[in-house]
């Protein structure tokens, strides 16, 4: 009988994780707010949000539980409504997808899993609070850098005519291709380590304008002109501005050493070529 995996949140990363799990022989159930089917062949989809908790017993017999559902202003909806059901199900493996945003700003310096979190943004503070609740359940915590992949990459931004090359001196971002996220989660299933924290990112923290220029080169189009940060921030939305609040390089050595992950896309260059 196939092992059973329950995934809260079939979003961009969740769908790729679910697809990789079904290909590896797992029986997968997952949630969306609507309960409508998504691009996940073979996955049983249920409705879940803060106003629509899952029925009792739906987690009985599951071998692994993962949440990619972000916290809201009230807290983590999965913990608030399903923590007792997860405890009762006692899966052998529990995981939670968090963010490297919990480290806050380090002026471009390196951070690793031993770096004390010091989030600057409200959404990152909520993530850190959720991490505590999930670690109390025995979860492995995966802190994800900027996620990209087919349909959600600099290549797509350029194709859609939305690309801008904003230059903030010294600013870099760490990234992770969605397929490498899935690879790390599946590797962790074979190496359960309750309460462990892993940074999931590639090897090449890079300035955002460099990534846009490379995407343009792949597409054979002229890159947009560089715009100084002081000029650009007046036209950026508060959400877009917030991405520039933190500046750090993220170490991924623990992911490689403990989970045995070999990145399929060690930098944005390989990743964007695959998106193309």
Describe this structure in words.
There is one protein chain. Helix content is 34%, strand content 18%. With 276 residues, the protein is of the alpha/beta class. The strands form four sheets. Strands 3-2-1-4-5-7-11 form a seven-stranded parallel sheet, with helices on both faces. Strands 6-13 form a two-stranded parallel sheet. It has a two-stranded parallel sheet with strand order 8-10. Helix 1 (12-23) packs across helix 5. It is globular. The mean pLDDT is 96. It comes from Paramagnetospirillum magnetotacticum MS-1.
Helix fraction, binned, reads 25-40%
The gyration radius over C-alpha positions equals 19 Å
**Straight-line distance between termini:** 38 Å
Count of alpha/pi helices: 10
| Mean pLDDT rating | 96
Reported for the largest beta sheet, the result is:
7 strands, parallel
SSE order, one letter for each helix or strand: EHEEEHEEHEEHEEHEHEHHEHH
**Sequence of strands across the biggest β-sheet:** 3-2-1-4-5-7-11
| Portion in beta strands | 15-25%
Give a brief rundown of this model.
This protein has 276 residues and is α/β, with parallel strands linked by helices. It has helices at residues 12-23, 77-89, 122-136, 154-159, 178-189, 208-219, 229-232, 238-242, 253-259, 268-275; strands spanning 4-8, 27-32, 44-47, 64-67, 93-99, 110-111, 140-144, 146-148, 165-167, 175-177, 197-200, 226-228, 249-250.
């Amino acid at each position: 009988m196939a092992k059973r995996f329950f995934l809260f949140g079939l979003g961009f990363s969740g769908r790729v994780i679910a697809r990789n799990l079904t290909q590896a022989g797992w029986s997968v159930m997952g949630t969306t707010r609507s309960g409508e089917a998504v691009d996940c062949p073979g996955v049983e989809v249920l409705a879940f949000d803060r106003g629509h908790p899952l029925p009792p017993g739906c987690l009985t017999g599951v071998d692994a539980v993962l949440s990619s559902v972000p916290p809201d202003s009230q807290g983590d909806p999965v913990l608030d409504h399903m923590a007792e059901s997860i405890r009762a199900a006692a899966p052998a493996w529990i995981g939670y997808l968090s963010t490297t945003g919990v480290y806050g700003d380090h002026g471009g310096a390196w951070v690793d899993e031993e770096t004390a979190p010091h989030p600057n943004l409200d959404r990152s503070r909520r993530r850190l609070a959720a991490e505590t609740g999930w670690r109390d359940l025995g979860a492995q915590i995966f802190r994800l850098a900027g996620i990209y992949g087919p349909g959600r990459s600099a290549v797509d931004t350029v194709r859609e005519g939305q690309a801008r090359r904003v230059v903030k001196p010294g600013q870099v971002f760490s990234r992770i291709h969605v397929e490498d996220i899935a690879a790390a989660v599946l590797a962790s299933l074979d190496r359960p380590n309750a309460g462990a924290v892993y940074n999931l990112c590639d090897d090449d923290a890079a300035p955002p304008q460099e990534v846009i220029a490379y995407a343009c080169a792949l597409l054979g189009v002229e890159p947009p002109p560089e715009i100084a940060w002081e000029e650009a921030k007046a036209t950026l939305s508060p959400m877009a501005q917030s991405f520039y609040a933190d500046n750090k390089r993220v170490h991924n050595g623990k992911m490689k050493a403990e989970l045995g992950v070999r990145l399929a896309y060690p930098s944005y260059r390989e990743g964007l070529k695959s998106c193309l």
